[in-house]
Amino acid sequence: METAPKRGRDVPPKKDKLQIKRKKPRRYWEEETVPTSAGASPGPPRNRKNRELRPQGAKSTHILKKSRISKKPQVRKKPREWKNSESQRSLSGAQDPFPGPAPVPVEVVQKFCRIDKSRKLPQSKAKTRSRLEVAEAEEEETSIKAARSELLLAEEPGFLEGEDGEDTAKICQADIVEAVDIASAAKVSEEHFDLNLRQFGPYRLNYSRTGRHLAFGGRRGHVAALDWVTKKLMCEINVMEAVRDIRSVASVSSQFLHSEALLAVAQNRWLHIYDNQGIELHCIRRCDRVTRLEFLPFHFLLATASETGFLTYLDVSVGKIVAALNARAGRLDVMSQNPYNAVIHLGHSNGTVSLWCPAMKEPLAKILCHRGGVRAVAVDSTGTNPLHRKSLWTFEMDTHISTFGAELLFASLVVQQHGPDSDLAFGWSLPRYMATSGLDHQLKIFDLRGTFQPLSTRTLPHGAGHLAFSQRGLLVAGMGDVVNIWAGQGKASPPSLEQPYLTHRLSGPVHGLQFCPFEDVLGVGHSGGITSMLVPGAAEPNFDGLESNPYRSRKQRQEWEVKALLEKVPAELICLDPRALAEVDVISLEQRKKEQIERLGYDPEAKAPFQPKPKQKGRSSTASLLMRKRKVMDEEHRDKVRQSLEQQQELQQQKEAKTKPTGAWPSALDRFVR
C-alpha cells in the first residue's frame, strides 16, 4: 500500500506566490521613502548592496503592509491625477519652472483683437448667438497667435532723426547714403541706379506689387522693364508712337498687371499689353486715347481714363470690358484708386473729385476740393498691408486663410453684433486720407470716413503736379524740379504739412512719383530719366510671403496666380463702404413685405400661426394635424380676402359717388361743357 510522501523528505517545498512575483523596479526620478540627510541632493539610486544596508526608519513609522521580499515599507497609492504634459517632470528629473505656453502682453493682444466683448447682441437667436460665440473664440485664439508670432517680424521700420535743433529737410541724399549700410546705399547711389535718359523723356514709372520689378515709359515711345534690385533688364522696346501735343501728359504710360509677367502700356492711340519679353500680346482698340491707368489687383480690373471723358474697366482675366462710364467732365488726366474699397477717384477741371465704381453709371460721391482744376489726387494706403491689418491670420507655414472671404464672413457676424457703423466689422485700420492739389496752388488732405472734410491745407509756391502716399503714410509732392516729403506725428495721424520731412532737387521737372513697396525707396520720373531716392521709414519692413513675396520663384508665382484667380472678387461688389456687403438691406425687405401684403390682401405675419391641440385615440397624427392647420389657414384666408373685397367695393362706390353728378340727369350736350 502506497503512502503519500511527507513534506521535507522527498518533495521539494512549494515556493510562496509573493516570492515568485518580480520586484517592481524603482526609477531614479521617483521619490525615496527613506529620509535623506539634510542638504543632500536627490540623485540616481545606488547599487543594490548599498540600498539593502541602508538603515531603516524609526519604528513608529506607519506601515500599511510589509512585503516578504523587500524590506522597504510600502506607501499608500494616491488616486491618479490627470495633469498637463507641461507640468509633468522630464526624464532628467527637473521640472519646468515656467509651465504652460508663454504669456502674451495684453497690449499686444489688443492690437490684433477686433471684438469688443462688452457689447452683446440683444435678443439674438440661439443659432446666431452660437455662431458669434464660435467666431469670438476663434478670433481670440487667432489674435493670441498673431501677437505671439509678432516676434518673428524681425525687421523694424526706419527713421531719420536730426541732431538737436537740426532740420531733417536739409539733409541731402549724399549724407543719407553715407550713413546707411552698403545694401541700402546700392539702391540709391548714382553709379548703381540713376538712369540718364534725356533723349526719350519725360518718364512715368510703376513698381510691381512685390516691389521687385520696375517698369517705365517715356513720352517719345521708350518702354522698358527691369529687376531693379539686381539691375537685370527684362525687356526694352520703342513703340514708335508720335506725340500729339506737348501740353498733354505722357503719351506712353506703363502699368504692371497682377504680376510682373504682363505690362499694360497706354500708347498714343490704343491700349497695348506686352509680356516681360517685350512681345505684344493684345491691342485693345476699345480703349483709345488713354491717359491714365490703374490696376485693381483683387478684382483683376484695369481701369483706364481717356481724353474722351470715358472711364473703362477691363477684366484682364477674361479679356472683357466690364463697364464704360461717361464722366461728362471733359478730358480725364487725373486718376487714383482707393486700395481699401477699389473705388476710382477722378479729378476734374472744375475743382471736383468724383468717386466711381463699375456697378453705377453715376458717381458715388462728388467732393468740391479746389477753386480751380485738380492737378493730382492720391489716397492713403495705410492699413491695407496683409501684415499691417488685423485680419484672420494664423501665422503658420501650412495655414493661410483667404483674406477677403474670411473677413467678409467675420464682418457679417460682427455687423449683427455691433452694428453696421462699427469699425470692428473690418478689422484693419481704414485708409482715411485723400490728398489733392489744384491750380490754386493749394495742397489739401481730406477725411474719407464719411465726412469728406479737409483736415489740413497748405499753399505751395508752385503747386504740386504729382502726389503719392507711402505704405506708412508719408506724402510726397512733386513741384517742378523739387520733391517734398511730409510725415505724420504718429502712426494713425495724417501727414503734417507744416514742416517737410525731406527735400530733394532734381535735374528736370517731375513727371511721375511712386514709392517702392517694402523698401524705403522713392522712384521719381522726370525729364532727364529715372532717379531713386532713399526715404527712411517710408515702407513696411515686413512682407507676407504668401501674398507679396519679392523672392518668389517662377513656380510660386504661377501657384499664386491660380489662387488669386480662384479668389477673384466680382466687380459688382465694389462700393463706397465694403461693410455694406455684410448688412441687411432693410429697405428692400420692407418693400418686399409691402408688396406681399398688397398681393395677398392681408399681412400673413400679423397673427401667430394656429397650433392645434393634441387629441387622444390616434387623432393627433401628423397628417391630421396638418389637415387641421390647413383648414384653419384657409378659413382665415377666406375671411381676410372677403374683408379686403368688401373694402375695395366700398372704395369703388365712394369713387363712383364722387364722380356722379348731383344735379339733373346727364344730357348728351354735357360733352361740350368746358
TrEMBL record:
The protein's name in its UniProt record: WD repeat-containing protein 46
InterPro entries cross-referenced by the UniProt entry: BING4_C_dom, WD40/YVTN_repeat-like_dom_sf, WD40_repeat_dom_sf, WDR46/Utp7
This protein's UniProt keywords: Nucleus, Repeat, WD repeat
The keyword Repeat is assigned to this record: yes
Biased composition (Basic residues): 62-80
Annotated source species: Saguinus oedipus
Gene that specifies this protein: WDR46
Keyword set includes DNA damage: no
Region ranges (Disordered): 1-103, 598-674
Biased composition range(s): Basic and acidic residues: 1-19, 632-643
Domain spans labelled BING4 C-terminal: 500-578
Major place of residence: nucleus
Highest taxon listed in the record's lineage: Eukaryota
Subcellular localization(s) per the UniProt record: Nucleus, Nucleolus
